[in-house]
Amino acid sequence: METEQKQAMELVSVTKKIGGRTIIDNLSFTVRQGEICGFLGPNGSGKTTTIRMMVGLMAMTAGEIRIAGHSIRTHRSQALARVGAIVENPELYPYMTGKKNMIHFARMAAEPVSDQRINEIVDLVGLSDAIHDKVKTYSLGMRQRLGIAQALLHKPTVLILDEPTNGLDPAGIRELRDYLRELARQEKIAILISSHLLAEVELICDRALIIQSGRLVGERTVRGTAGEDELVLVELELKGMERARDASGQGYGLVKRESGIYTANIAKSAIPELVANLVRDGIEVYQVAIRKPTLEDTFLQLTKGDEAL
């Protein structure tokens, strides 16, 4: 399935230096058509700087960003015409109706936007019943959806959302999640979401990219099918570890959780060898339980436990 998806956005060896300090260091990744991709990292990792370069608000020191095949460096207007973005709260006019807001933003588009297109997008984000009400009467979730509708008017290839669930209650977050999934499915738009809510990213995204100190440190398929070599979290109940060559368990790649219980983050295909080595060394294996690590597990492992996102 992945081979059928076209690249909507591509970053190639992107570097950004400010005052002699490297903020983004040789960063490369792609986001595919119809994919919802999480963009994660601790505070100061370079997420905001990267997004600013993607939307043309900041120049690169080196490297390349392509949107729908157009280079931001050499074909800036064509590339940015294929990007829709909301950074935190969308800019809306509260004393105008939702429809008048849409008409206003449509007039600023590089190409004409028909009333039919406006109605299609309003329907897609589920605001048909409220589009003639003033925006000041909208809930925060409705405003977020209207902001997304406004960002979709010019039929972008990529939609970039920075902390889109800020201030939303659980119902609003779920509502937004459902609309973004439908959007990716119907419009085949690539959606990149920068968020500090790891559990929410895990629920909505197909894939997650993790950066730290301006570098890509990990990539995790979130909603794909587990493969033989996918990283899994293994929990083992063992007896006799004190007799082993490494009583701490570290020699086997194990971490002791409590008396007799150890865990390891390893490829699924490596489990038989791990168990065989334990048995060979005279350790009794009572139980082996496997679970896929959560996105939080992966994030903390790759960023060495940095708490701030």
From TrEMBL:
Q: Where is the ABC transporter domain?
A: 9-238
Query: Gene3D superfamilies per the record?
Result: P-loop containing nucleotide triphosphate hydrolases (3.40.50.300)
Instruction: Show the SUPFAM superfamilies listed in the entry.
Output: P-loop containing nucleoside triphosphate hydrolases (SSF52540)
SMART domains named among the record's database cross-references: AAA
Annotated Gene Ontology MF terms? ATP binding; ATP hydrolysis activity
Q: Which UniProt keywords apply?
A: ATP-binding, Nucleotide-binding, Transport
Family from the record: Belongs to the ABC transporter superfamily.
Database matches in PANTHER family: ABC TRANSPORTER, ATP-BINDING PROTEIN (PTHR43335:SF4)
Q: What is this protein called?
A: ATP-binding cassette domain-containing protein
Tell me what organism the protein belongs to.
Answer: Paenibacillus lutrae
Its taxonomic placement starts with: Bacteria, Bacillati, Bacillota, Bacilli, Bacillales
